[in-house]
């Protein structure tokens, strides 16, 4: 029970990796504040966590809204008396080269993937300081480190999350607050599956093909990434700070 009595805020809690995070932290006795823009699924995920015996609250809303980001942290602190762990997991993936990227695509990607991480972390750090420490795990992407083709807004936002992680990690470390990021390659979640559907492909077949491109033999399942995020949030990673950890199954970025 690595997270017994710890309050954890999870964004994107109704998504692929988010649901795996909720299950994992619920099973390890954390107190959960679950966030997602999809109110119905956010509520359903919180109810599943409660049914599994966890203390779980949720606050649905849009991470593009600064007031919502701040209310989420305040809500966790009010319900549970503080904040110990923040998992900035939510993300969106607009597709396009710079010429194909509209202003709306650009600002949405930057708002959700980057600026919300800034708002949430800034609101959470004072609560972590009051607790004598804490952990923030951001979800960047291996495409933020080595950009993949044709996703300029996404890759830029994820690259900035990696830079923000190193900056915050440096500044927060003296307060015993460890800030790290996970940088996954492809994960079998709705994010990637809906992308295949939009391109007229069968997601199961497309993932079978994608699996062949990974030296470990398959793309990641949500639980593979949730396990790494939980490790970084736990005391087992007590000397890891301001780090970006690539989780790729040994697959390089190419194309
Ligand atoms: N799936 C992949 O291949 C992959 C690879 C590398 C990194 N990532 C990153 O992993 C993280 C988790 O992604 P996933 O694959 O589980 O995706 P997902 O689409 O399954 O889940 C993302 C969740 O974020 C929520 N969300 C989106 N916009 C929001 C907003 N404006 N406000 C609040 N919530 C919002 C969605 O409703 C969704 O539930 C993301 O940051 C993503 O960029 C994913």
Give the structure's gist in a few sentences.
The protein has 255 residues and is an alpha/beta fold. It has helices at 16-27, 39-51, 66-80, 103-131, 142-145, 152-172, 190-198, 203-211, 222-233; strands at 7-10, 31-36, 55-60, 85-88, 134-139, 177-184, 244-247. The chain binds nicotinamide-adenine-dinucleotide.
CATH level-1 class: Alpha Beta
**Number of DSSP helices?**
9
Bound molecules: nicotinamide-adenine-dinucleotide
Could you tell me how far the N terminus lies from the C terminus, measured between alpha carbons in angstroms?
A: 42 Å
Structural category is alpha/beta
Explain what you see.
The protein has 255 residues and is of the alpha/beta class. The protein has a single domain, classed as NAD(P)-binding Rossmann-like Domain (Rossmann fold). Helices cover 49% and strands 15% of the residues. It has helices at residues 16-27, 39-51, 66-80, 103-131, 142-145, 152-172, 190-198, 203-211, 222-233; strands at 7-10, 31-36, 55-60, 85-88, 134-139, 177-184, 244-247. Strands 3-2-1-4-5-6-7 form a 7-stranded parallel beta sheet, with helices on both faces. The longest helix has 29 residues, at 103-131. Nicotinamide-adenine-dinucleotide is lined by residues 12, 14-18, 36-38, 62-64, 89-93, 112, 139, 141, 184, 186-187, 189-192. Nicotinamide-adenine-dinucleotide binds at residues 12, 14-18, 36-38, 62-64, 89-93, 112, 139, 141, 184, 186-187, 189-192.
């Amino acid at each position: 029970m690595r997270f017994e009595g710890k309050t954890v805020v999870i964004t994107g809690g109704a998504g692929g990796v988010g649901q795996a995070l909720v299950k994992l932290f619920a099973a390890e006795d954390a107190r959960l504040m679950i966030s997602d823009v999809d109110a119905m699924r956010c509520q359903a995920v919180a109810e599943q966590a409660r049914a599994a015996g966890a203390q779980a609250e949720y606050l649905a809303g849009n991470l593009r809204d600064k007031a919502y980001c701040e209310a989420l942290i305040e809500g966790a602190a009010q319900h549970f008396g503080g904040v110990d762990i923040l998992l900035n997991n939510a993300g969106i993936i607009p597709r396009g080269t710079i010429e194909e990227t509209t202003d709306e695509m650009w600002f949405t990607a930057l708002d959700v993937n980057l600026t919300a991480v800034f708002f949430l972390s800034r609101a959470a750090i004072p609560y972590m300081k009051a607790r004598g420490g804490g952990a923030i795990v951001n979800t960047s992407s291996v495409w933020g480190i080595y950009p993949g083709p044709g996703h300029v807004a996404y890759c830029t936002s994820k690259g900035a999350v990696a830079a923000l992680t190193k900056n915050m990690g440096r500044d927060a470390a003296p307060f015993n607050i460890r800030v790290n990021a996970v940088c996954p390659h492809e994960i079998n979640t709705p994010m990637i599956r809906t992308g295949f559907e939009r391109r007229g492909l069968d997601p199961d077949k497309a993932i079978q093909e994608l699996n062949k491109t990974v030296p470990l033999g398959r793309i990641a399942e949500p639980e593979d990434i949730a396990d790494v995020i939980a490790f970084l949030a736990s005391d087992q990673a007590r000397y890891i700070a301001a780090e970006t950890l690539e989780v790729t199954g040994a697959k390089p970025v190419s194309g």
